[in-house]
Amino acid sequence: MNFASIRVITDDVDRLVEFYEKVMGITAERPAPVFAELVLPSCTLAIGHSETVSLFGVGSAVAADNRSVILEFRVQDVDAEYKRLKPVVDDWVKEPTTMPWGNRAILFRDPDGNLINLFQPVSEEAIRRFSSRG
């Protein structure tokens, strides 16, 4: 099994796509006005309008109501990303910090309030842990 994507449900696809394009530094693929994919070699971030939820036959998924998932991206230089994203991000949760498990990280919220963690392994153990993950 391969982890293929995570999908964020929103009421404003265009706003969220524009935000993630700036954060991720890539252009989204837009196969439909209500759906977008930001494709990285490791995984895809999909963004779907709340009206698409019914296509899956599920009763509900509430846009902008996530309080349990953090989207995480490994980066080369957390401090450089923090400087680059300062003008883009309105809601900073944690400025650059080295965590007890050996990652240097920043944490912020997207326009819908979803948490995003950009991290960089910095301790010997963390570097070793991520060395085989590509």
Question: Describe it for me?
Answer:
- Pfam families: Glyoxalase.
- The two termini are 17 Å apart.
- A hairpin with a 2-residue loop joins strand 2 (29-32) and strand 3 (35-39).
- The chain has helices at residues 13-24, 78-85, 124-130, and strands at residues 5-10, 29-32, 35-39, 44-49, 70-74, 91-98, 103-109, 115-121.
- The longest helix is centred in the N-terminal third of the chain and has 12 residues, at 13-24.
- The protein is built from 3 helices and 8 strands; from the N terminus they run E-H-E-E-E-E-H-E-E-E-H.
Helix/strand layout:
Layout: E1 5-10, H1 13-24, E2 29-32, E3 35-39, E4 44-49, E5 70-74, H2 78-85, E6 91-98, E7 103-109, E8 115-121, H3 124-130
Fraction of residues in H or I helices: 10-25%
Main sheet, how many strands, which sense, barrel? 4 strands, mixed
Any idea how many domains? 2
Query: In the CATH hierarchy, what is the architecture of the largest domain at level 2?
Result: Roll
Termini gap: 17 Å
Overall geometry: globular
Please name the CATH topology of the largest domain: 2,3-Dihydroxybiphenyl 1,2-Dioxygenase, domain 1
Q: How many DSSP-defined strands?
A: 8
Characteristic terms for this protein:
134 residues, alpha/beta, Signal recognition particle alu RNA binding heterodimer, srp9/1, 2,3-Dihydroxybiphenyl 1,2-Dioxygenase, domain 1, 2 domains, four-stranded mixed β-sheet, 20% helix
